[in-house]
Design a protein that fits this description.
Structural class: mainly alpha
Number of helices: 3
Helix content: 55-70%
Strand content: under 5%
Largest sheet: none
Number of domains: 2
Shape: elongated
Order of helices and strands: HHH
Number of strands: 0
Amino acid sequence: MKQNHMITVSDDQSRIARAMPNFSAFVQECLRMHSNGELDIDMSKLNLRKREIERMEYETAIERRLTNIEKLLSRIVDD
């Protein structure tokens, strides 16, 4: 099932989007590539809302903890 999502773009970006044959397909492909690790976006350079920044910081903290747990388990297994 497909869902509609609305984005906000500048006037220049709107002109670029209108010139594309299928802007929706372009965005879908970018999302697919990003989720597969084929398109790296530096999220720190994006204009994010406070709650989005807080969520990213929380997720980063969880990832750090998981990495530390994996290292600890690896050391236990290796010993």
